[in-house]
Amino acid sequence: MKKIIVDEEYCKGCHLCISQCKKAVLAVSCIRNARGYLVPQANEPENCTGCLQCEMICPDMAIAVEDSADEK
C-alpha cells in the first residue's frame, strides 16, 4: 500500500490532484490550512496504484506518494 502525504503548509487547495486521480483515492477534506484552503486527504489509500499523477500535477509540490512501511 502507498502512503499519500499532503504538505498542508504549501497546498493552495487547487484540487488538481483530486481531479487527476483515476482511482478516486483523494478527496477534499474538511481541514483548512493556515491560509484557509481546504486540503485534500486520502480517503481510499488502499486503491492507490502509485502512479504518481497527483504528485506530478501539483503546482506547489505539496503532495508526495511513498511506499508504506509494510512494503519495505
Structure explained in plain terms:
By secondary structure, the protein is an alpha+beta fold. It has one domain (2-71): Alpha-Beta Plaits (2-Layer Sandwich), CATH 3.30.70. It is 14% helix and 31% strand. It has a two-stranded antiparallel sheet. The chain has a two-stranded antiparallel ribbon with strand order 2-3. The mean pLDDT is 92.
Please summarize what this structure is.
The protein has 72 residues and is α+β, with helices and mostly antiparallel strands. Helices cover 14% and strands 31% of the residues.
Query: How would you sum up the global shape?
Result: globular
Instruction: Write the H/E string, N to C.
Output: EHEEHE
Strand content: 25-35%
How many discrete domains? 1
Low-confidence runs of at least 5 consecutive residues: none
CATH hierarchy, class? Alpha Beta
Q: Quaternary arrangement of the chains shown?
A: single chain
Tell me the CATH topology: Alpha-Beta Plaits
Tell me the structural class.
alpha+beta
Mean pLDDT: 92
Helix count from the secondary structure assignment: 2
Q: Roughly how many Å is the radius of gyration?
A: 11 Å
Architecture per CATH nomenclature, i.e. the level-2 architecture: 2-Layer Sandwich
Percent of residues in helices comes to 10-25%
What composes the largest sheet?
2 strands, antiparallel
The total of beta strands comes to 4
Strand order of the largest sheet: 1-4
**Termini separation (Å)?**
10 Å
